[in-house]
Specification:
InterPro entries: MetI-like, MetI-like_sf. It comes from Halalkalibacter akibai (strain ATCC 43226 / DSM 21942 / CIP 109018 / JCM 9157 / 1139) (Bacillus akibai). It is a multi-pass membrane protein. It contains 16 helices and 2 strands. Strands 1-2 form a two-stranded antiparallel sheet. The protein is mostly helical. It has 2 domains: 47 residues, no CATH class; 239 residues, MetI-like (MetI-like fold, Orthogonal Bundle). The chain is flat and about 80 Å long. Helix 4 packs across helix 8, helix 12 packs antiparallel against helix 16 and helix 15 runs antiparallel to helix 16.
């Protein structure tokens, strides 16, 4: 008598799905291989060090090690929030971040739109090269050029002011009034051109037939930009805005550190420079880790909130 064996249909479906997934992986294996270095980078340098966040809740002593150091809970956070420096740091960081969001980010969109309107290819490529070049300069070079131009002793701008008889030397580099405008101008000069790359790539995908139809209807260039170009790249703008909010309080240590001095520290000290000064120079590692964790938590909340708002308005968002 022959024994009939029946296989479970659900298992067959699961096996077939597994084979199909493996087949897909093998089909696109080179794409996965190209993705591997970036994945390893984030695993090693982004996710791996996250276990060290426990330092913010301990009184870290190097000779004891991280795990053997005393657990203090939220003591470092309570200390940070109770200091008068907290509101000074929060105000300075928030204002510079808002300038970055309100001035710098829209400027990259406007610059991309202007570059996209250039019809002569050789001229367009020349302008792109000129605005891209400063991105490859380090902040040390950028700040050095700023000092050469604005120094009170031999600075080009102050020499012009003296020669024209418009007044005495202006203390740009030590003035509390000029610090934030200089930071924003440096950011625009260095990074605005590079920030247009993604927008230009998105603009290249806009259907030319839409412009032709609008031109037949008598629409001006500004009308076409407003009703065709901007709506076509709206999703990209929203996604990049959400990503930028994630780094809302991350202004870049090098630029601020090189521009801050004892005379403008009241308006120039931000979370990043404070962490360096207190954490590394004074050896308060746990306290500086708590400050950094607070800054990261604010960025996370902003990303989640902005993504939720984008979803509410019908945009794709990040997830």
């Amino acid at each position: 008598m022959e024994v009939m064996t029946k296989t479970d249909p659900s298992k067959q479906i699961e096996v077939s799905r597994t084979k199909e997934k493996f087949k897909k992986i093998m089909q696109y294996r080179w794409l996965y291989i190209f993705m591997l270095p970036g994945l390893l980078f984030f695993l090693i340098f982004r996710y791996g060090p996250m276990w060290g966040l426990i330092m913010a809740f301990k009184d870290y002593r190097p000779h004891l090690g991280l795990m053997a150091s005393e657990w203090v809970g939220f003591a470092h956070f309570e200390r940070f929030f109770s200091l008068p420096d907290f509101w000074m740091l929060f105000r300075n960081t928030l204002l510079l971040a808002l300038y970055d969001l309100v001035i710098f980010f829209p400027l990259t969109i406007i610059l991309a739109l202007m570059l996209n309107e250039i019809t002569r290819e050789w001229f367009k490529r020349s302008v792109q090269t000129i605005v891209y070049v400063p991105y490859f300069l380090s902040w040390v070079v950028i700040v050095g050029i700023t000092h050469i131009l604005l120094s009170t002793e031999g600075g080009l701008v102050n020499e012009i002011i003296r020669q024209t008889g418009e007044g005495g030397a202006v203390h740009f580099l030590t003035s509390t009034d000029w610090f934030r405008p200089l930071i924003v101008l440096q950011m625009i000069w260095k990074d605005a051109g590079w920030g247009t790359i993604i927008f230009l790539a998105a603009l290249a995908g806009v259907n030319p037939a839409l412009y032709e139809a609008a031109k037949i209807d008598g629409a001006s260039r500004l009308r076409m930009i407003w009703h065709i170009t901007l709506p076509s790249i709206r999703n990209i703008i929203v996604i990049l805005l959400i990503l930028r909010l994630g780094n809302f309080l991350d202004l870049g240590f090098e630029q601020i550190f090189l521009m801050v001095n004892s005379l403008n520290r009241e308006v120039g000290e931000v979370f990043d420079t404070y962490v360096y000064r207190v954490g590394l120079l004074q050896g308060q590692f746990s306290y500086s880790a708590a400050v950094g964790l607070f800054k990261s938590a604010v960025g996370l909340v902003l990303v989640l909130g902005a993504n939720w708002i984008a979803k509410k308005f019908g945009e794709e968002g990040l997830y």
